[in-house]
Amino acid sequence: MSFALLLAVGAAIGFLGGLVGIGGGLLAIPFLVLALGFEQQAAQGTALIMVLPAVLLTLLNYHKHAPIPLKPALAGASTSVVFTWLGAQFALGMAPVLLQQIYALFVLCLALYYFYQSRWTRHSLATQSAEAKPTSVSIYYFLLVGMIAGTAGGVFAVGGSVLVVPLLTTVFKFSQFRAQALGLTMVVPGIIVALITYAAHGQVAFFSGLPLAVGSLFLVPYGVRLAYALAERRLKFIFAFTLLGISFLLYYSSL
């Protein structure tokens, strides 16, 4: 695939990633598998090249709209690093088809959860905004959240923040926007660890990942801007619909 086309695909993925707060990685993986014929581990490792700069840019844009709480973010990031490495070692030892099917099931469960949330949850305008205040909890709970994020991020390469967001919205009562920002903050160190680990096992294609990464940076701010403007229920529905499509594509390509 040409460099220009990869740039365009990366731009589209960056916009959607900024919109739903997943850094675009979950969208890049099915593209790499279906369009470029990558095996699951190689797709996950290559997607990390695109994920890292896109996540950093997404975080900067989220932080402009609503400052990210520092202590919970650092607590989660501290444990996510170790568990990301452990999860990556486990994933790299699995059969590619099995990992892809497990990944598809994981994403499907998340999609169903968010469809439920978008259908039944009722929020006032105050809780829909990024300024909604989270429940006051001990910092030690965020260490546990970091472990969960790290494990998912290592096994699925980019799944950590997607799994953490529902925890932050349901258990700790963060708004959707703030949960997405905090979830990404927790997994940034883990993404670096995962990229190094996958690359050490020869599962990173830099010539495909780099143009995707460059392209994704162009439209990330516009996706974040739209996410901030949307009502929370609508954002959850878009999030769920995106995950459902990803799940279908991943499972279909494994058959």
SSE arrangement, N to C: HHHHHHHHHHH
Number of strands: 0
The termini sit apart by: 24 Å
Oligomer: single chain
Count the DSSP helices: 11
Strand content: under 5%
Structural class: mainly alpha
Cα radius of gyration in angstroms: 17 Å
Biggest sheet architecture? none
Label the overall shape. globular
- Mean model confidence by pLDDT: 82
Point out poorly predicted stretches.
Answer: 121-132
Write down the domain tally.
1
Determine the fraction of residues in helical runs and give it as a percent range.
over 70%
Q: Overview of this structure, please?
A:
The protein is mainly alpha-helical and 255 residues long. The chain has one domain (3-254). The chain has eleven helices and no strands. The longest helix is centred in the first third of the chain and has 26 residues, at 40-65. The protein starts with a helix and ends with a helix.
Give the topology.
Layout: H1 3-20, H2 25-36, H3 40-65, H4 70-92, H5 96-120, H6 125-128, H7 139-156, H8 160-170, H9 176-200, H10 206-229, H11 232-254
Helix pairs in contact: 1-2, 1-3, 1-10, 2-3, 2-11, 3-9, 3-10, 4-7, 4-9, 5-11, 7-8, 7-9, 8-9
